[in-house]
Every structure is written in C-alpha cells, then in structure tokens.
Amino acid sequence: MNVPNSASISPAEGGAKLPAHEVVYQRLRAQILFGELAPGQAVTIQGLVEALDSGMTPVREAIRRLISDGALVFQGNRRVSVPQLRADDIDELVYARKTIECELARRAATRIETAEIDVLEDLDLALDKAIAIGDVAGYLALNYQFHTRLNAQSEAPILVDLADRLWLRFGPSLRVVCGRFGTQSFPDRHKDILEGLRKKDADLVALAVERDVLQGMEQVRAGLTPVF
Amino acid sequence: MNVPNSASISPAEGGAKLPAHEVVYQRLRAQILFGELAPGQAVTIQGLVEALDSGMTPVREAIRRLISDGALVFQGNRRVSVPQLRADDIDELVYARKTIECELARRAATRIETAEIDVLEDLDLALDKAIAIGDVAGYLALNYQFHTRLNAQSEAPILVDLADRLWLRFGPSLRVVCGRFGTQSFPDRHKDILEGLRKKDADLVALAVERDVLQGMEQVRAGLTPVF
DNA sequence: CAGTCCCGTTTTTGATCATATTCTGAGGAA
DNA sequence: TTCCTCAGAATATGATCAAAAACGGGACTG
What we know:
homodimer, mainly alpha, Arc Repressor Mutant, subunit A, Four Helix Bundle (Hemerythrin (Met), subunit A), 2 domains, 3-stranded antiparallel sheet, 9 helices, 3% strand, globular, DNA-binding
C-alpha cells in the first residue's frame, strides 16, 4: 500500500533517512495489524505524540493515511478509533479476499522462482514453531509475511494493494480471536500452497489459498462478539 | 472511501462546517477523478496551497490520503504526481473491477427501490445529453455518479470502498481517452443495467455491468500511449 | 570552435515544530 | 431536564530547517 521502504523487513537500511511521518505510519500500521491496538480502542493524536515521541504533524499524516486504508475509522466528531468488524463485513471480506488473493496466488504460481519457494517454506516452518509454543504475536507476523511475500510474487501491484488493505481490516480482530482460542485451532493450509507452487499448478495453489482464506475468515466470524 | 459528507453532490450543505482538510481532499479528488489533472502531472504542496488558498497542513493531509487511495503516487524523492497507467495495470483493473463491481451490482439488484431506479434513469438521460453535445466533463461526472449511486445500493461498504479506489486509478486516463476520441465511441450499457434492475434480475445486471466495465477499460487500453 | 558534461551555487519545495484558534463533550447550576 | 461554562483535544497557521532539483559557468572533448 504505497510502502516505499519496507524497513520492517530489512532493518539494515541505509540509515535514519526515511521521514518521520513514514516511520510513524509503519509503526502504527504494525501495531494495528498485529493486534497491539484492540478493535474499538480510541486513538488520540496527542497520545501517539507522547507514545511515539514524535511531532504532531507526522502523527496527523499517519492517521490520515491509515483512515484512508480502512485501518482506522473517523467517527465523525474528530474521534478516531480502531474499527470493529460486524458480521456483514465478514461476508464482504470473504468475497473480496477470495477473488483477489486467489488471483494473486495464480499469478504468483506462474512466476515464482524455486529460491523464493524455499524462503516461503522457511517462513512456514518458523510459523509452525510459533504455533507450537503458542506465540500469538509471532504467528500473526509470520502468517502476514508469508502471504505478503507470496502476493508480491504476482507482480500485480494494484491487486496487492487491495489485498493489503483488506488485511488491515481484519488484522485487529484476528488478534482477538487468536488470543481467545489460541493458535492451534488453525489447520495449516500453507503446506498445500507450497506443494502447488513446487508443481507450478496454479489451480492447486488458488484452491489452497481459498481454503486458507475461508478458514481464517470463519475463525474470525466465530470469534466475533456482539457489541455487548 | 471514507467520505463522510459528499459535499460535491449536495452543495446546499449546512454550512462551512466540514474541516479544511476535508474540503481540500474533496476538491483534489474531483480534479483527479475528472481529469483536470493530467496523468504524469506533478503535484506540489505549495502549488496547492496557493491554488486552493488553504493552509499547508490541510493540503498535506489531503495529499497523504490521496496517495493512500492510489490517486497520487509518491515518487520516492518527496515528489508527488498523478499516476500514469501502464498496460499491465489495465489487466489488473479489468479483473478487479469485474469481480468487485459485478458483485456490487448483484447485491444492488436485490436491494434497490423503484424510486432509486428512477433516479438512475434520470442520471442516464442526462448522461446521454452530455454525450450528444460532446460535454466530456459532464459525461465523466455523470458516469461516475451513475456507478457510484448504483454501488451505494449494495450496502457493502468495504467493497464500495475498493471500487472507488479502483475508479481513482483510471479516472485521469479516462479523461485523456475521452479528450482524444470523444465520448460518442462509448456504447451505452447503462440501459441494460436499468432494465435488469427493473426486472430484479441480478444476473442480467451483473452481465451488463461486466460489459460496461470491459468496454470502458478497453477504451482506456486502446488510448494508452507508450511513454514516448 | 561548438557541443557536452560536470560541479558549484541558487532556488524551490518538503518536513517539522511551536503556537493560536476552534470545536466537542462533560459536568454543574438553574 | 435543560442550558451554560469550561477543560481538553483537534484543527489550522506560519515560521524555520533541510533537502532536492534547477540553473549556470567553466572545462573538456570532438
């Protein structure tokens, strides 16, 4: 989603070159994506200024971007908070993720190099380990990395952007679900994805991704609490 | 796309209540959408500050939002410009628009009220008139309104958001194409859409929308100039 | 001698901050 | 309960600092 420097992946970057508003955006984005901010939680500018030890302008800009991303919601009265998914939203997310991520997977399957598949396999092994030891934060981060990396192989920047945006919508809720049920309840479809990639079978990959998406979304749906 | 008050549609709003950054965002967005800013054109903060007679902060925030929307691109060296579509982008847009807007149309078909169909029909008549007199700006605005209004009936905010974002991507190029070929080269599929809506035939509506999308995108593709 | 390229200065533009202003929502008084 | 006041947060401004691009003079090459 227009993330010029993915500093989160390659920390050995040139230096403190990237502007403050970019840094703030990245950090806030990660916090939302990996559930450090709970759905419904209020987000204040001044709170972030103190928490991130940054100026006001960068924080403002980061918040605007995240609102546009759908990662935060503007509540009308100058208030901003982390969005709470509703049941209807899940239906939309299921449809959108299925159509977009499956297409991405299809494209990736025809383009991906063997070395990159190995990287994905490593990620998946690390992911298994995170599940085994109940490391929720690690699980979320690795799962996201796995899909992001897979999507990146598609060479379809517009669709990748859409997929990223969708992920931001359910990221916070995913954390809640994992915290409640634990990570072990997610069967791992990634193995099927990797197998399909190695066989260069786009249909197989797309099918595996579809199942992965459906499983994830159904978990979120099941974990949705009525507002109470 | 998180547009609380669509001041562009109802100008007789309560007053100057909405914040400056929102106003700037709306105006810039419209300029991009309806081709007042050409693809490739550079956008400077200070230029907008003068042009819109606004402060720097609102302009900054509006630009951030539009970058996140994909309506502007950050060129790495602090420079911002209107994006230029490439041939590969069209393929992605075709796929994404087809899957998303057809689904929206399907949902709209089951929910729309007769009165709203009449409104759409009026819009379409005005659109015909704009085509007849070669009013490109009017054509673009009405065409956008028609689709936006149709999509809104779907009651699927997340998908609507995605569709809006896609529209922002090809808006500028559409203007270029219209300017070059004129508006008369676009056959009008809206009549089929309206017919399907009246019959409450979701499949028919979806099919008509798909054709409309395809036609529009192929026009854009045909009008794409290699960078030269 | 003309054209081209390089490297310094100049100027434009973006990033950030401190501060003034406006607005919202809560709590107390009638 | 309703209205008024007020604290606190968000919005918006302009100044200041830093960086990148544009410009132009000079040297080098054909």
